[in-house]
């Protein structure tokens, strides 16, 4: 019996399916107003390992990786799949998670760095015992690894190399990394316990309280649509906005003596979302901060993510919320 | 003698031809249009007129520029006035008119107060500021100083006196909302407004000018709710205008008027307040004459001003001559 | 002012230069007129409409009273329409409009927990829609029936993107005040939009008119479709140092909704120069979208039904005067505007 080449048959079937008169791709692509401005909530009752959401990352086909204090979870749109030390994670406290271009999953834990490979969580021994608090993939596929007290390292999987990227001599606070960020000008931003550093090539510029930053402990960065870099800090009452080398303060007007900023994100409407640890979620509309009372689960926002559909994921200490952003205007 | 009679007859005929019309019956006079009627009512004629006026509150002149009013506010002005005119003689007429006024301004405001970390108090309040009721009575007389002829225009002098029959004070409307109150329907003042009008007919056109000045007295009135009364004087008002009316046919006339107003500063307790204001407006419209009944539609269009309303006003006039 | 003068200019022309063919214009009643102009006839129409938008229909068809909230607005619209009868059965026309409207949104007071140091914020928001609309050109063809009882016609037309369609830069402003121990920012957000569609729009329509001795019944339907996707931008702002605004453009693409407009009309002619009209009109739009970020967001389908009584006067053989009032009856996702139309129509035969 002649073996059939099945590829043309499968292709033909696929073509027939796509050409079906019941399929209107353009109409199915449209988002309808009724689906906008909707909140969806997730917590342990829905399958999360913990309500304390520490880190978020979007992976292949829109999967959401969720780091908690009781393990790592991945959400595929309908179910949560959870991983703990029993699955090979070095710790259940997941400070950072990253899916790189080659779909490898990296998990920064309180006890080292894990790589998910071939269905197993493998340790990256170089970082054994160290707190890995931040992960960032650069455009050249290098992975930046921020540690708690040892600075920032650069790893390349294909080349099997790990090198120092930014390690400051005799400064433990400088080497205690909270967050890493890459802006549209290919600057690398490092958030540490001793301010923010902007690095491009050999050039490094430091921002801290002495030159206008709201605080020295930097928790998050995000670039806005005007090219400014928003900086969240633990201390201070404001968010900082850096334009070039100028630092400007954006006020919360909530009367708090300290606004500990946990996360910053930007939606598709170019509004900035700033999550605080004590006073909940704020939205900046280009002029002023406005508190978002209804929607997030709790007042303690630790992480945020905008997915490929433009929806915002807000991680708090009391659960995870997803918000489909819409903009209603009368005119 | 025969030659003189012939000359006299020719003169009479010629004069009749130059004036172009025979003597009209009273019924015909009552059907004259805005272009052909004299500037004062004929003796014994009685005229009833209803005028309605409507405008919206949408744009204002500020620093001579037209701009939208700020904030959530929407309003309209409506009034309907009854005018009674009587011709005491062919040159002298009197008039009385009184309006019913309704003005409404709708506003809303949203408050957001932070309460604590877990919530805020937010509320939207709405309120209406309204004036509703009879306005000030106006009495007028007009005298035709010069009767129109083919060689000269008609010149008429008018004197209008306004009496404070409308509510002059701002009053509390007993609403819970402190921003909601009733506005006055009258000025509370006695004003005297002499004016002069020239009118010339060159059929189908009628054109002319008018000038006037309004003297206004000081009056004690409440201008803010729950505040004591103040001594208030509206600024005196000067106006000048020119008009051209065109008969399109025997019963439809197109009206055109350009008016300029200048108002002096108001005074509160003897001290000047606010700014002088000026306004240039254009008033086009149509007048339809159906027997003794006349129906006019006009639009008052503010062209330029330094301060004040920039919205057009729409006027309907219904008139019947008895 | 120019627009008023255009309307005023038409009037004096009406009284001069009467010709024998004026008798046709004078004696032909409104209900007897064919649906296209006579050969060689030129008609210029100047129109003004005042629309008071005091009602808004939501997506469920429920009407919201905008007036009580202070959200009502007014729109002034001027139009110029020129038609020419190529022959007894073919007519070409072109028309353009100019419009202005300002919509005010909710005024808000956002109060700070500590106004001595963190100012309260009072904000006003307005959207201005002003300017010329696109120029349209139509060709109307009337079926060459011998009977005068019925007329059937077809319209093909095109609207060209001659007017600006992208918005002008906003003119936001901010003012800081401090009194009685409290500080405050007064912010005015002012957006300015133009009225062009930005794309070429094709039109296809049809009309039928049936006459009785003193009555006429008409019906018309028009379909409009944008021939391509459009591109435009929105203005985004940022407040710098709480003193001044900076702006940038955010680009997006869109597809105009397809629209169907239709009406049924009854005319009664009690006098040769006076015609009474009762018109019921409908509007429906669908299938439009606009990109927001990575998404194509559908523009909600909209409908509107209105009742429009009106009158027409033949003032002179060449000059006609028409007025109409529009009452919104029902709708979905659309404004409900009470509109008053006044038109001056000037006719003459060129040859």
Short description:
The complex is a heterotrimer of chains A (331), B (322) and C (351). By secondary structure, chain B is mainly beta. Chain B has helices at residues 2-19, 26-29, and strands at residues 46-57, 59-62, 65-68, 73-87, 92-116, 119-134, 137-146, 154-163, 171-172, 181-182, 191-202, 205-216, 218-221, 230-233, 237-247, 252-263, 266-268, 271-273, 277-290, 293-305, 307-309, 313-321.
Verbal overview:
The complex is a heterotrimer of chains A (331), B (322) and C (351). Chain A has a single domain (31-324), classed as YVTN repeat-like/Quinoprotein amine dehydrogenase (Methylamine Dehydrogenase, Chain H, 7 Propeller). Chain A has 2 helices and 29 strands. Chain A has helices at 6-18, 25-29, and strands at 30-31, 38-42, 53-58, 64-68, 71-75, 80-83, 94-99, 105-109, 112-117, 120-124, 132-137, 143-147, 152-156, 161-166, 177-182, 188-192, 195-200, 203-207, 218-223, 229-233, 238-243, 246-251, 261-266, 272-276, 281-284, 289-292, 301-306, 312-316, 319-324. The termini of chain A are far apart. Chain B is mostly beta strands. Chain B has helices spanning 2-19, 26-29; strands at 46-57, 59-62, 65-68, 73-87, 92-116, 119-134, 137-146, 154-163, 171-172, 181-182, 191-202, 205-216, 218-221, 230-233, 237-247, 252-263, 266-268, 271-273, 277-290, 293-305, 307-309, 313-321. In chain B, the strands form 4 sheets. Chain B has a 12-stranded antiparallel barrel. In chain B, strands 13-14-17-18 form a 4-stranded antiparallel sheet, with no helix packed on it. Chain C is mainly β and 351 residues long. Chain C has one domain (2-349): Beta Barrel (Porin). Chain C has 2 helices and 21 strands. Chain C has helices at 2-14, 22-27; strands spanning 41-57, 63-65, 73-87, 90-104, 108-110, 120-132, 135-142, 150-160, 173-179, 182-193, 201-211, 215-226, 230-240, 244-255, 258-271, 274-286, 288-292, 295-299, 302-314, 319-332, 334-349. In chain C, β20 (319-332) and β21 form a beta hairpin. The longest helix of chain C has 13 residues, at 2-14. The relative contact order of chain C is 0.17. The interface between B and C is large, with 37 and 42 residues. β1 of chain A pairs parallel with β18 (295-299) of chain C, so a sheet runs across the interface.
């Amino acid at each position: 019996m002649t073996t059939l080449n099945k590829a043309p048959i499968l292709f033909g079937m696929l073509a027939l399916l796509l050409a079906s008169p019941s399929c209107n791709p353009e109409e199915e692509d449209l988002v309808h107003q009724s689906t906008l401005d909707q909140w969806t909530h997730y917590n342990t009752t829905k399958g999360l390992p913990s309500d304390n959401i520490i880190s978020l990352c979007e992976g292949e086909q829109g999967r959401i990786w969720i780091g908690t204090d009781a393990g790592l979870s991945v959400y595929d749109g309908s179910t949560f799949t959870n991983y703990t030390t029993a699955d090979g994670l070095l710790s259940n406290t997941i400070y950072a998670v990253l899916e790189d271009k080659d779909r490898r999953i990296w998990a920064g834990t309180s006890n080292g760095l894990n790589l998910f490979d071939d269905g197993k969580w493998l340790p990256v021994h170089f970082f054994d015992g160290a707190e890995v608090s931040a992960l960032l993939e650069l455009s050249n596929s290098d992975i930046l690894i921020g540690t708690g007290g040892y600075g920032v390292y650069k790893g390349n999987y294909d080349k099997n190399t790990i090198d120092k990227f930014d390690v400051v001599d005799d400064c433990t606070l400088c080497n205690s990394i909270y967050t890493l960020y890459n802006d549209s000008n290919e600057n690398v931003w490092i958030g540490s316990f001793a301010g923010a550093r902007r690095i491009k090539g050999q050039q490094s510029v430091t921002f801290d309280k002495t030159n206008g930053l709201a605080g020295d402990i930097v928790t998050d960065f995000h670039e806005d649509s005007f090219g400014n870099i928003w900086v969240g800090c633990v201390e201070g009452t404001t968010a900082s906005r850096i334009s070039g080398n100028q630092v400007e303060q954006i006020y919360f007007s909530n009367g708090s003596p300290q606004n500990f900023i946990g996360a910053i994100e930007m939606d598709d409407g170019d509004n900035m979302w700033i999550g605080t640890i004590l006073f909940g979620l704020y939205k900046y509309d280009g002029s002023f901060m406005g508190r978002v009372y209804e929607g997030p689960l709790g007042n303690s926002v630790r992480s945020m993510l905008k997915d490929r559909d433009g929806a915002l994921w807000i991680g708090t200490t009391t659960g995870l919320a997803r918000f489909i952003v819409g903009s209603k205007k009368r005119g | 003698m025969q030659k003189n009679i012939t000359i006299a007859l020719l003169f009479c005929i010629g004069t009749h031809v130059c004036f172009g019309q025979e003597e009209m019956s009273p019924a015909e006079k009552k059907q004259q249009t805005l272009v052909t009627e004299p500037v004062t009512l004929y003796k014994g004629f009685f005229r009833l007129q209803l005028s309605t006026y409507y405008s919206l509150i949408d744009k204002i002149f500020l620093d001579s520029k037209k701009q939208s009013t700020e904030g959530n506010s929407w309003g309209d002005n409506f009034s309907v006035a009854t005018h009674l005119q009587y011709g005491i003689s062919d040159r002298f007429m009197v008039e009385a008119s009184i309006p019913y006024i309704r003005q409404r301004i709708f506003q809303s405001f949203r408050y957001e107060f932070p309460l604590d970390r877990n919530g805020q108090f937010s509320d939207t309040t709405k309120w209406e500021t309204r004036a509703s009721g009879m306005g000030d009575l106006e009495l007028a007389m007009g005298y035709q100083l010069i009767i129109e002829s083919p060689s000269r225009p008609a010149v008429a002098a008018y004197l209008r006196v306004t009496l404070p029959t409308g509510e002059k004070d701002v009053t509390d409307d007993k609403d819970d909302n402190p921003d909601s109150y009733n506005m006055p329907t009258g000025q509370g003042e006695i004003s005297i407004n002499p004016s002069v009008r020239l009118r010339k007919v060159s059929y189908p056109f009628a054109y002319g000018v008018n000038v006037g000045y309004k003297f206004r007295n000081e009056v004690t009135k409440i201008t803010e709710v729950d505040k004591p009364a103040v001594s208030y004087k509206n600024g005196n008002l000067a106006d000048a205008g020119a008009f051209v009316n065109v008969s399109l046919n025997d019963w439809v006339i197109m009206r055109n008027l350009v008016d300029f107003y200048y108002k002096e500063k108001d005074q509160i307790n003897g001290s000047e307040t606010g700014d002088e204001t000026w306004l240039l407006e254009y008033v086009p419209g149509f007048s339809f004459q159906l027997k003794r009944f006349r129906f006019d539609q006009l639009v008052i269009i503010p062209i330029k001003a330094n301060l004040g309303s920039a919205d057009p006003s729409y006027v309907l006039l219904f008139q019947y001559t008895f | 002012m120019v627009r008023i003068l255009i309307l005023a200019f038409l009037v004096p022309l009406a009284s001069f230069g009467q010709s024998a063919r004026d008798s046709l214009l004078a004696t032909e009643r409104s209900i007897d007129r064919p649906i296209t102009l006579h050969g060689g006839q030129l008609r210029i129409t100047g129109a003004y409409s005042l629309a008071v938008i005091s009602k808004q229909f939501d997506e469920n068809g429920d009407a919201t009273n905008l007036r009580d909230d202070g959200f009502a607005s007014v729109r002034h619209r001027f139009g110029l329409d020129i038609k020419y009868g190529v022959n007894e059965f073919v007519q070409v026309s072109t028309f353009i409009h100019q419009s202005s409207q300002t919509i005010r949104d909710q005024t808000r007071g956002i109060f700070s927990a500590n106004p001595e140091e963190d100012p309260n914020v009072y904000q006003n928001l307005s959207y201005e829609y002003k300017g010329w609309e696109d120029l349209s050109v139509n060709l109307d063809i009337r079926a060459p029936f011998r009977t005068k009882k019925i007329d059937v016609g077809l319209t093909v037309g095109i609207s060209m993107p001659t007017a600006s369609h992208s918005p002008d830069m906003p003119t936001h402003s901010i003012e800081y005040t401090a009194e009685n121990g409290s500080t405050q920012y007064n912010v005015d957000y002012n957006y300015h939009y133009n009225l062009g569609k930005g794309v070429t729009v094709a039109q296809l329509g049809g009309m039928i008119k049936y006459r009785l001795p003193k009555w006429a019944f008409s019906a018309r339907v028009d379909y409009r479709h944008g021939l391509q996707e459009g591109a435009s931008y929105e203005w985004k702002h940022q407040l710098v140092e709480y003193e001044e605004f900076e702006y940038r453009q955010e680009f997006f693409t869109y597809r105009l909704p397809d629209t169907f407009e239709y009406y049924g009309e009854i005319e009664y002619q009690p006098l040769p120069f006076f015609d009474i009209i009762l018109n019921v009109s409908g509007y429906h739009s669908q299938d439009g979208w606009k990109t927001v970020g990575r998404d194509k967001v559908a523009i909600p389908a909209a409908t509107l039904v209105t009742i429009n009584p009106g009158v027409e006067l033949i003032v002179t053989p060449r000059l006609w005067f028409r007025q109409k009032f529009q009452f919104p009856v029902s709708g979905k996702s659309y404004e409900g505007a009470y509109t008053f139309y006044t038109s001056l129509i000037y006719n003459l035969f060129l040859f």
